[in-house]
Amino acid sequence: QQQVKQSPQSLIVQKGGISIINCAYENTAFDYFPWYQQFPGKGPALLIAIRPDVSEKKEGRFTISFNKSAKQFSLHIMDSQPGDSATYFCAATISGGSARQLTFGSGTQLTVLP
Amino acid sequence: KAGVTQTPRYLIKTRGQQVTLSCSPISGHRSVSWYQQTPGQGLQFLFEYFSETQRNKGNFPGRFSGRQFSNSRSEMNVSTLELGDSALYLCASSLDPNTDTQYFGPGTRLTVL
After folding, report:
1. How confident is the model over B53-84, as pLDDT tens digits?
2. What is the number of alpha carbons within 13 Å of residue B71 lying toward its C-beta?
3. Rounded to the nearest 5 degrees, what angle is found at the Cα of A84, between the Cα atoms of A79 and A87?
4. Is the CB of residue B76 less than 8 Å away from at least one CB of chain A?
5. Which of B1, B17, B7 is nearest to B74 (CA)?
6. A89 reaches B (C-beta below 8 A)
7. Which of A73, A105, B52, B58 supports an S-S bond with A90, CB 3.0-4.6 Å?
8. Which of A112, A104, A96, A77 lies closest to B100, judged by CA?
9. Are B13 and B19 in contact (CB under 8 A)?
10. Does A100 contact B55 at a Cβ distance shorter than 8 Å?
């Protein structure tokens, strides 16, 4: 199946805390896993992405951890800020080919309290 | 470099009508994908176009169609609108189908009354 399961549905974190969002996938053919951030009234914006050949990727305060054997990946937001309050979507796709399409998780609404 | 632009941003239609949405990809990007976003179903893939050809299609009825022009601009059309078609329609562009990074536009908010 093409599903990507995301949790939690909503998350409330204090300023300066760590936000963790988890995703699990079923299709082992997926080979590209991006995370998108979406603010109200805006389209999703690419945050960070990872491929299965690495277990972790860090960009600033954002880190993706990837567990290929468990078919799980997660987004960690360090030192969370009120400006990080948004909806976060994980996604997965098969690179190139005619089957390329982003399969999205259901989204996590993050609220960072000041 | 300008981002993905979508027009119109907001649209109100009534059941049975048809609608056409437009997307201009980032300059130099030749691949355009369309997604539907609803509170109930989330983000779902509609179709992808490259070189004026549809490469892939999601699980949507034939009322949903699209096309791409020689300048890479794309349009999607929904005929015989239903209440359930109310959604945010998002366009995403990438350099080509072999480039994984896709950049989204702000979307067109369609309301069907």
Report:
1. 999 899 999 999 999 999 999 999 999 999 99
2. 7
3. 130
4. no
5. B7
6. yes
7. A105
8. A96
9. yes
10. yes
